[in-house]
Design a protein that fits this description.
Helices cover about 25% and strands about 25% of the residues. With about 300 residues, the chain is α+β, with helices and mostly antiparallel strands. The chain has a domain of about 130 residues. Strands 11, 12, 13, 14, 15, 16 and 17 form a seven-stranded antiparallel β-sheet that branches. Strands 5-4-6-7 form a four-stranded parallel β-sheet, covered by helices on one side. Strands 1-2-3 form a three-stranded antiparallel β-sheet, with no helix packed on it. Helix 3 packs across helix 5. The longest helix has 24 residues.
């Protein structure tokens, strides 16, 4: 996407907004207006911090290709808060990111020795399930024509929130993938452990709670924040880091569910262009999350690899 107005990223069709890059459709309603107003408060705070950053020594510059992150992406907020500049040309940058809001892409040629996410070109649901089974040793994916009981049917795309509960066996639909239905319900709400990783390590955990009937939607009843060590065991963190390494994910968010009966973790989605912080997260927790992620990002693009 070019540096044109943000409106070029969207098209309005009736009472919905479609994201051109991913095809995601968002209803034009009061909920969207409220979320936009909440997001604007964070955006203005980050813009204020950017002005203060001008008083400090100039930070590192990063080239993003083929797209530049817009202000609603988490990496934009983290970079802006911590003085990491988004370069306008590869020549002025110290590092580069493959940044494309799609499930399958073709990364451009690497222009820098410090280059991130270039190996993470496929984040389809089936690819995520394949890598998950390899790393964790137990499956997420199901064969819909031989399986029995409830399951989740999803599209392969990124950020479309089109999951639905189905009963197996059934005939597989083209372009759909089938996964176990994870019982992640606590106190009547489905809990998603959205965890941003930087340099293959978890930085924060967003505890996203939704009504069970809205478990596949993008509206949360509430969101809290925790440190990874307060949510996952040491062994689980090692597995999650191994998963990121296998996905070749240097920056991105994992949607992680914990099954209530077995206690097992399931990584059900990967997003290398994640948005955020979540709208429902309290304002000062948003700032804390952005600061932590920004410090990790700055270290990623400036410190020598171990």
């Amino acid at each position: 996407m070019s540096d044109t107005l943000w409106t070029s990223d969207f098209s309005v069709r009736g009472r919905t907004v479609q994201v051109k890059k991913t095809g995601a459709v968002i209803p034009l309603d009061r909920a969207l207006a409220s979320e936009a107003a909440t997001w604007l408060a964070l955006y203005l705070a980050i813009r204020g911090k950017m002005l203060l950053n001008r008083l400090a020594p100039r930070g590192p510059a990063v080239w993003f290709a083929p797209d530049r992150p817009r202000p609603w992406y988490l990496i934009w907020a983290a970079a802006a808060w911590n003085g990491v500049r988004i370069a306008r040309s590869p020549a002025e940058a110290q590092a580069s990111f493959y940044f494309e809001d799609s499930a399958v892409g073709a990364p451009p040629a690497r222009g820098h020795s410090r280059a991130f996410n270039y190996g993470c070109a496929d984040i389809t649901k089936s690819r995520v399930a394949e890598v998950f089974a390899q790393v964790f040793g137990y499956p997420l994916a199901l064969d819909p024509e031989t399986g029995v009981g409830l399951a989740v049917e999803k599209g392969e795309g990124n950020g479309v929130h089109d999951g639905r509960v189905v009963r197996l066996p059934l005939r597989a639909r083209a372009g759909r993938t089938y996964q176990r239905l994870i019982d992640n319900v606590e106190d009547g709400l489905a809990v998603d452990l959205r965890t941003p990783f930087v340099g293959g390590r978890p930085v924060v955990v967003f505890l996203k709670r939704r009504r069970v009937e809205d478990r596949f939607a993008n509206h949360n009843c509430s969101v809290g924040m925790a440190r990874p060590s307060d949510v996952f065991t040491h062994e689980e963190i090692e597995k999650l880091e191994a998963f990121c390494h296998a996905m070749r994910l240097d920056w991105g968010g994992l949607d992680i569910l914990r099954d209530r009966a077995s206690g097992r973790l399931y990584v059900v989605d990967v997003n290398k262009t994640d948005m955020g912080p979540p709208i429902a997260l309290p304002f000062f927790q948003k700032l804390a999350a952005v600061a932590r992620l920004g410090r990790a990002l700055r270290a990623l693009v400036t410190e020598p690899a171990p």
